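User: I'm putting together notes for a lab meeting next week and I want to include a structural view of one of the chains we've been expressing. I don't have a solved structure, so I'd like a prediction I can at least talk through. The sequence is below, exactly as it appears in our construct file.
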Amino acid sequence: MEKLWYKKKSSLHGSGLFALSNIKKSYQVIQYIGDKVTKKEGDKRADIQIKKAEKNKKTGMVYVFELNKRYDIDGGVLRNHARFINHSCDPNCEVEITNSEIWISSIKNIKKDEELTYNYGYPFDSDFEEHICKCGTKKCVGYILSDDDWPKLKKELKKQK
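Assistant: Thanks for the context. Below is the predicted structure for the 161-residue chain, given as structure tokens.
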């Protein structure tokens, strides 16, 4: 599979992946790879990454991705360039899990040099306020949440006023 992206500094957050050339809608852009681990091990690794991030802001984020009910993929490995794709409330890519593989696929036509993004889809829970979104799109809701949970967010924010 040909390489469709390059990494550089992102205006969204840290580094990002950008289109090396035009990418058509419905194309598998990059596979999210890493160590396949049990849920228990994935939770343990995520906790370790969170503690490191709290101590050293340059450490990065948690790259443990849910593969299925039994396994996660710990994408915090050097060979996993997909970990640099940033969140957006108006993304141009989405996550597809097929045959126990995680793929980032385009949901729009993407122009050369455009940053690749997808909605991280965090669930709405008590700590949603810890996941602030800075994507700056017209659709931005201010938090990194699954768009399925945007109505809940709207109600919660209204209640807080």
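A couple of points you could mention at the meeting. The domain at 5-121 is CATH 2.170.270.10 (Beta-clip-like). Residues 56 and 63 are 16 Å apart (CA to CA).

User: Perfect, that's what I needed.
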